[in-house]
Design brief:
This protein is mainly β. Helices cover about 5% and strands about 35% of the residues. The longest helix has 7 residues.
Length: about 475
């Protein structure tokens, strides 16, 4: 299914707790899951019809290994996301390939989609610091398979060019890049080579095939290579295209049966985040590029970072037309200040139920009051003219109704995510703050409504609350989230 069609569907779509050590995972049984057909939603890992939230805890201890990393899935429900309905997975969980090792940081990158076509959403986990066969930081990619009981077991996707790059899995994107109606996976590394793992995945054999394209980017030591990837049908032909973000610029490749081909360069400089959605519902996805650390000579008047929206069209993305948003833009709350990192994280989803996708923007170094690097998140709304600053909302831990209190280095907004977790037709805003409580990390979920994001009924929970214990290490729960 093309990305712009998925964008239009964003908004329309007593547990028994069984606890175990992190090494074996932690699962919350969900009554009645097995009796219903799976929903087919890309991020519904247990098939119950509610979108779920996957969050990394890259500093978590697993199997007594420091910073081995883990992933937490909080399941959606009629009441939305809660701390109680969750499952924790690490490389020490039953059926997951590999082994938890010190400094692996399993869950550094996350993406989701139904890769094997069984109706259950699957979770793709990038572990770019994994050592592979003596290759330090060679990187690894693991698919965790959805099922009626949630994520269960996994399959490793072998690096096709292990000697040619490092940090395989440092960027991920899911989409139909070949136009055959099957879900593919794009994987980036420190090299120029981006790999498309073709749909028709199986749990035993992995992808149906592989395609390679070499992006017009600079390879080398981190953060070189494909720093970010995003999928979107920018030309509206029914096949997903792929945007590649790098430290020197961003390049878009048109999807096709033989693999992606060059379409356009969009923007210059380091891409801190990418997001794609059809914000004006014209049948073509648009691309958002975050630039959280503008260069000294950057002509854009936004010292604290900005986001650029490039519109899609019949010929693909139009690099000659773009619109820039920052805290210096009229209508965007706050003040543009150096080192805010506005645009450091991005997510798209329909918050108010009007069918137009909206844009969440994180600035996790934003200072609030006397506290530095507390963090802030904005929501900019889509409409017939695309993204607009009109009616923009701003949230931090000092906002009325948002649980907690802002403190220095909380990094509220280190991850952002928009999805409808309670099936009310409106996307909810999830926010990660990996520095909360001295790097325990925490997640907030603010509900969508007809008038936008509301703090009424907001929930929050920390790493220890969901079962990620400190164990002498900093779990940094809340970095990243799948789909952010």
């Amino acid at each position: 299914m093309s990305r712009h069609k998925r964008s239009r569907r964003l908004a329309v779509l007593g547990a028994v707790v069984v606890a175990a050590a992190l090494g074996g995972g932690l699962f919350v049984a969900l009554p009645g899951d097995a009796s219903a057909a799976p929903s087919g939603l890309a991020d519904d890992f247990n098939g119950d019809g509610y979108r779920d939230l996957a969050t990394g805890a890259t500093g978590a201890v697993a199997n007594s290994k420091a910073k081995a990393g883990a992933v937490v899935v909080n399941y959606g429900s009629s009441g939305g996301i809660s701390a109680a309905r969750k499952k924790i997975t690490s490389q020490s969980s039953s059926g997951v390939p590999g082994a938890s090792e010190t400094e692996d940081r399993f869950g550094t990158e996350l993406a989701h989609g139904d890769l094997n076509g069984d109706g259950y959403g699957d979770l793709v986990v990038g572990t770019p610091l994994e050592d592979v066969d003596g290759d330090a930081d060679g990187g690894a990619v693991t698919v965790l398979w959805g099922s009626s009981s949630g994520l269960s077991g996994g399959t490793t996707l072998s690096d096709p060019n292990g000697s040619g790059h490092d940090r395989f899995g440092q960027s991920l994107a899911v989409g139909d890049f070949t136009g055959d109606g099957r879900t593919d996976l794009a994987v980036g590394s420190t090299g120029k080579d981006v790999w498309i793992f073709k749909g028709g995945f199986t749990k035993s054999g992995g992808a149906a095939g592989k395609l390679r394209f070499d992006a017009q980017i600079e390879a080398g030591a981190y953060p070189r290579g494909a720093v970010g990837l995003a999928a979107g049908d920018f030309d509206g032909d029914g096949t997903d295209d792929v945007a590649v973000g790098s430290s020197t610029g961003n390049v878009v490749y048109r999807g096709g049966p033989t693999g992606p081909t060059f379409q356009a360069e969009v923007g210059e400089g380091y891409a801190s985040a990418l997001a794609a959605a059809d914000f004006d519902l014209d049948g073509h996805d648009d691309l958002v590029v975050g630039t959280d650390s503008p260069a000294v000579l950057d002509p854009t008047p936004a010292d604290g970072g900005y986001v650029t929206v490039f519109p899609g069209g019949a010929a693909g993305l139009d690099a000659s037309r773009s619109e820039v948003f920052s805290q210096a833009t009229a209508g965007v709350p706050g003040a543009d200040e150096h080192d805010d990192l506005f645009g450091g994280t991005l997510a798209a989803g329909d918050v108010d139920g009007d069918d137009y996708p909206d844009l969440a923007v994180g600035a996790f170094f934003e200072s609030v009051g006397s506290a530095s690097h507390t963090g802030n998140v904005w929501v900019l709304y889509g409409g017939s003219s695309g993204v607009t600053a009109t009616g923009a909302q701003s949230f931090h831990q000092g906002t009325t109704g948002v649980p907690g209190a802002g403190e220095s280095s909380d990094l509220f907004g280190r991850a952002v995510h928009l999805a409808d977790h309670n099936r009310d037709g409106r996307a909810d805003l999830a926010v990660g703050a990996s520095g909360e409580n001295s790097d325990d990390g925490a997640v907030w979920v603010l509900r969508g409504s007809a008038s936008g994001v509301t703090t009424s009924g907001a929930v929050s929970f920390t790493g220890p609350t969901v079962g990620i214990t400190r164990s002498g290490q900093d779990p940094v729960f809340g970095r990243p989230m799948s789909g952010s």
